[in-house]
Design goal:
The chain is of the alpha/beta class. The protein is 33% helix and 19% strand. The chain is built from 11 helices and 14 strands. Strand 10, helix 6 (191-197) and strand 11 form a beta-alpha-beta unit. It binds phosphoenolpyruvate and manganese (II) ion (MN).
Length: 339
């Protein structure tokens, strides 16, 4: 169960409440986020909700049977809206477009992608400065200096920055320069990292693990939420299956399922999802039709020269066309009475 507390609950009232909840056989955890105070009760015993609901200091009480609690739609039917400032949102009812290279490579490259975003009304740019690479000999990113450079150029153009954080020690140094911390597929269950991201007040986008289930993705989000940060976005980026014809298997099923289970916005990443440039647009549009609140895809002036993931990266002409199609399909989607 989730017990939402009144902001002015006294410590005596809280103690009394915890005692009562423990008394019915539920284990309690106190959660304090930037937006509210909660007590999470874990247990299975049947009980009369009125016994607790009438106690002082309680705002609301919800029975949530899911393993994850705070990210569940069962207690918060209203979708979560992520406000990045300057009129940029990621939320239900809008279509977020995030594009940019796999890796940030140079000042010249940053300027070209920023211009491409501005020209196409795209307000969020992706790019890695800390790159998780399968081989230690591959390009591993420009690091914090690259991020600073990127920030100085992007912020001037009103472009928000989405970039991966790989370890806890990077959170603080990155903080002034990021708008959305991306947790990569390889770190989807790095619980130390998730705990620490619970302490920041900037948005966090969690990618699904390489072999992660939908439930595991939601539990990862629960870590950040229960750590204090409610500004969360979920990202479906494909999972590893027996199929070898594509880089990953983009699990489009996950999109409506995540939207139904959670109040958090859901983004689709067709680039890593299929890994083949020619088919990225199809999978992006399929993701939009499946109900995604946004698309994140890789683009580069000359994909063949990209330092990483060139094979799945669109050039600017392709990206401009895709952005227009995404908006068109999203407008169409609104006319369907999908669940
Ligand atoms: C990326 O976004 O470039 C990336 C490394 O993604 P993922 O963690 O999904 O593999
Ligand atoms: Mn990539």
């Amino acid at each position: 169960m989730i017990i939402q507390l009144q902001p002015d609950i006294s410590s005596k009232q809280k103690e009394n409440l915890i005692e009562k909840v423990n008394g019915i056989g539920y284990k309690t955890t106190e959660v304090k986020t930037q937006l509210g105070d909660y007590i999470i009760g874990i247990g299975k015993k049947e009980f009369d909700i009125r016994k607790i609901g009438q106690l002082d200091g309680i705002r609301d009480i919800h029975i949530v049977s899911d393993e994850y609690k705070l990210v569940s739609k069962k207690w918060k039917a209203k979708p979560t809206s992520i406000d990045l400032g300057d009129g940029v949102f990621i939320k239900d009812g809008e279509m977020a477009i995030i594009t940019g290279p796999c890796s940030i490579e140079s000042e010249e490259q940053i300027r070209k992608v920023v211009d491409h975003c501005v020209e196409n009304g795209i307000r969020m740019m992706r790019g890695g400065v800390f790159k998780p690479r399968t081989s230690p000999y591959a390009f591993r990113g420009m690091g914090i200096e690259g991020l600073k450079l990127w920030h100085s150029i992007a912020s001037e153009a009103g472009i928000k920055i989405v970039t991966e954080v790989m370890q806890t020690s990077q959170i603080e140094e990155m903080y002034p320069y990021v708008d959305i911390y991306q947790v990569g597929a390889r770190n989807s269950q790095n619980f130390n990292l998730l705990d620490e991201l619970g302490k920041v007040d900037k948005a966090v986008m969690i990618k699904r693990g390489i072999s992660g289930t939908i439930e595991e993705l939601l539990q990862s989000a629960e870590y950040v939420f229960s750590g204090g940060n409610e500004k969360l976005i979920l990202c479906e980026r494909g999972i590893r299956t027996y199929e070898k014809a594509s880089r990953n298997t983009l699990d489009l099923n996950a999109i409506p399922i995540l939207k139904a289970k959670s109040h958090l916005p859901v983004i689709v990443d067709p680039s890593h999802g299929i890994g083949i440039r020619a088919y990225v647009p199809q999978m992006a549009l399929a993701g939009v039709m499946a109900g995604a609140d946004g698309v994140i895809y890789e683009s580069h002036e000359i994909p063949e020269k990209a330092y990483s993931d060139g094979q799945q990266t669109l050039d600017f002409a392709q990206s401009a066309r895709l952005a227009a199609w995404i908006r068109e399909i999203f407008d169409k989607r609104k006319t369907f009475d999908l669940l």
